[in-house]
Amino acid sequence: MTETTSKRTTKARAATGGLTVERVWTTPGVHPYDQVTWETRDVVQTNWKTGETIFEQRGVEFPDFWSVNASSIVTTKYFRGAVGADNRERSLRQLIDRVVLTYTKAGKEHGYFTTAEDAEVFEHELTWMLLHQVFSFNSPVWFNVGTSAPQQVSACFILAVDDTMDSILNWYREEGRIFKGGSGAGLNLSRIRSSKELLSSGGTASGPVSFMRGADASAGTIKSGGATRRAAKMVVLDVDHPDIEEFVETKSREEDKIRALRDAGYDMDLGGKDITSVQYQNANNSVRVSDEFMRAVEDGTGFGLRSRSTGEVIETVDARTLWGKIATAAWECADPGIQYDDTINDWHTTPESGRINASNPCSEYMHLDNSSCNLASLNLLKFLKDDGSFDAVQFAKSVELVITAMDISICFADFPTDPIGETTRAFRQLGIGYANLGALLMASGLAYDSDGGRALAASITSLMTGVSYKRSAELAGVVGPYDGYARNAEAHQRVMRKHAAANDSVRGMHTLDKSVHALATKAWAEGNKLGEVNGWRNSQASVLAPTGTIGFMMDCDTTGIEPDFSLVKFKKMVGGGSMQIVNQTIPRALRKFGYTEETVEAIVAYIGEKGHVTDAPGLKPEHYEVFDCAIGARSIKPMGHVRMMAAVQPFLSGAISKTVNMPEDATVDEVAEVYLEGWRSQLKALAVYRDNCKVGQPLSSGSSASTSGGASAADKAAAASAAQVTVEYRPVRRRLPKKRPASTTSFTVGGAQGYMISSSYPDDGLGELFLKMSKQGSTLAGMMDAFSIAVSIGLQYGVPLETYVEKFTNMRFEPAGLTDDPDVRMSASIMDYVFRRLALDHLPFETRSALGIHTADERQRQLETGVYEELSDDDDLGDDGSFAADSLAQSAPVKAAAPAPVAPSTTPATAPVAEAVKPVPAQVHSSTELMEAIQGRTQDSPMCLTCGVKMRPAGSCYVCEGCGSTSGCS
Question: Where's the Ribonucleotide reductase class II vitamin B12-dependent N-terminal domain (predicted)?
Answer without folding.
Answer: 42-133
